[in-house]
Amino acid sequence: MTEAFCAAASPAYIFSEQDFISRMELVRKSFGETVDICYSIKANPFLLAVLPDGFSNIEVCSPGELEICKAFKIDPAMIIFSGVNKSAEEVGRALDYGVTLLTAESYSHLDSISSEASKRGLTVDVLVRLSCESQFGMDKADVFKVIADRASYSGIRIVGIHYFTGTQKTRPKEIIKELTRLGKILDRLEEELGYVPERIEYGTGLAVDYFSDEAAEKEAARLSDISEAVRELSSRVHVTVEMGRFFAAPCGYYVTTVVDAKTNDGVNYAIVDGGLHQLKYDGQIQGMQIPVITHIKSDAAGCDSGPSSGEDEKWTLCGSLCTTADVIARGASLPGLKIGDRLVFHRTGAYSLYEGFSLFLSRDLPSIYILDKTGALHLMRSRIETAKFNQPEDLTAWL
Fold first, then answer.
1. In contact, 182 and 140? CB cutoff 8 Å
2. Gap between the Cα atoms of 274 and 270, Å rounded
3. Does the pTM exceed 0.90?
4. At what angle do helices 215-234 and 17-31 cross, to 10 degrees?
5. 80, 59 in Cβ contact below 8 A?
6. Of 274, 334, 363, 364, which is most buried with the most CB atoms under 10 A?
7. How confident is the model at residue 70 (pLDDT cuts 50, 70, 90)?
8. Is the Cα dihedral 381, 348, 54, 231 positive or negative?
9. Which run of H or E residues covers position 67?
């Protein structure tokens, strides 16, 4: 991949199609063919460009994400229209696109979906979201009430439950406990209401390891540990497993270039043309952990054939922002690091592009590329100047 890392403009994100396919196949093999898998595109909507056939659904949580799906010509039958804030207008736009499966997080959601579907002479499928002591979804008593009163909602067919409690879960036992809880809820619904759900959408929240040399092995082990429980639930009801980070994180590479190097008070500092506003590893203290980094030495042609080698040197890697907080890593071992070298940060395929404070200091947003499974690099988005976002639309009134 060195050639692609060298060919991309710096800074840039590169998302690998083959890594995405491999991750999907890992999950598919673990859960079996009877379990549907859903990609939550909030983790990285650019991966829609290379969405593998193995995905049954994609989760969309905003009108903006719906517009992205339209741009990529995503089959509306694949979309689960979710999200904590769904206005009647937004529901209507989803229905007009052809979406037929939505989640409901409140009574007002149910009313909006019912009203908009009825206006169009439609009957759409709805999953009622079960809360877990948070602002998301409805508590169990309300979920049971909605299901008991399901015949009163015109334009809606209550087909099951949506359940997602959080992300970065490192203990499989926690996920197995949630799957057991869902099984008990199925029992109660049938016993008390005579209702047998057609489907359950469950978000595992499986953790991704960003700072471990054995990350792939640890993640595969967690996946294996929950597979039996997922398969068992799927023997009772149609299960869709929804994940975003777990699919996307390993697919991403953040490319940046060393623009300055110096030693202050005995500490080696390298300044790169990216920074903390563009590179974020979820749930970790930035600068206190060292991610996997590929170091590509520069030469007259631009890049050489591979990683550097030589005497060990420790470097503190800092971005281009005017704040002492802009530390990407401390004590990274990068022998022979020099101005012009490229550093490639691995596992940046999920959220890193979106969670940083990208408008700070009005620096440009990075270019974005897809590396397809043949090894060809495709520019998806050129650099974007952000200065226009940090000033009034019409400057003439102020000049």
1. no
2. 11
3. yes
4. 40
5. yes
6. 274
7. very high
8. negative
9. helix 63-71
